[in-house]
Amino acid sequence: xxxxxxxxxxxxxxxxxxxxxxxxxxxxxxxxxxxxxxxxxxxxxxxxxxxxxxxxxxxxxxxxxxxxxxxxxxxxxxxxxxxxxxxxxxxxxxxxxxxxxxxxxxxxxxxxxxxxxxxxxxxxxxxxxxxxxxxxxxxxxxxxxxxxxxxxxxxxxxxxxx
Length: 162
Fold this sequence. Notes:
Elements: H1 2-17, E1 23-31, E2 41-45, E3 51-56, E4 62-67, E5 71-78, E6 85-91, E7 99-103, H2 125-128, E8 141-144, E9 156-159
Parallel strand pairs: 1-7
Antiparallel strand pairs: 1-4, 2-3, 2-5, 5-6, 8-9
């Protein structure tokens, strides 16, 4: 009788010590035209931004991640040439409805750095013949940076005082 009670007690204790089964969060990632985004990175984070799981979408843009327990999570999606997308996901006792995530192309960004030292710039009329600087008197000059505008604006050349 004592042995049977010990076996039942161990069985109950073992089942209580096992973690709850993970709940799958699944879905598909598409671009703004509706095409699936292949190899997008999908990450699941806690509200404190600790990583829980990470995967990549397949050729059809599909993904599946395990949520350890019911709760609210942050789903982060990113792909090359696309912006990062954040989604709050609430998980109950059962798997949520598959997610439909649309990501948009990242904005174009370009940066140009120009460096020079005294005496390193040469005035050659052949290299500036089509620019407004070709009409300027030859001599040392400075190039002023102009903030980007929707219109294409040539650089401004300001001659140094001799």
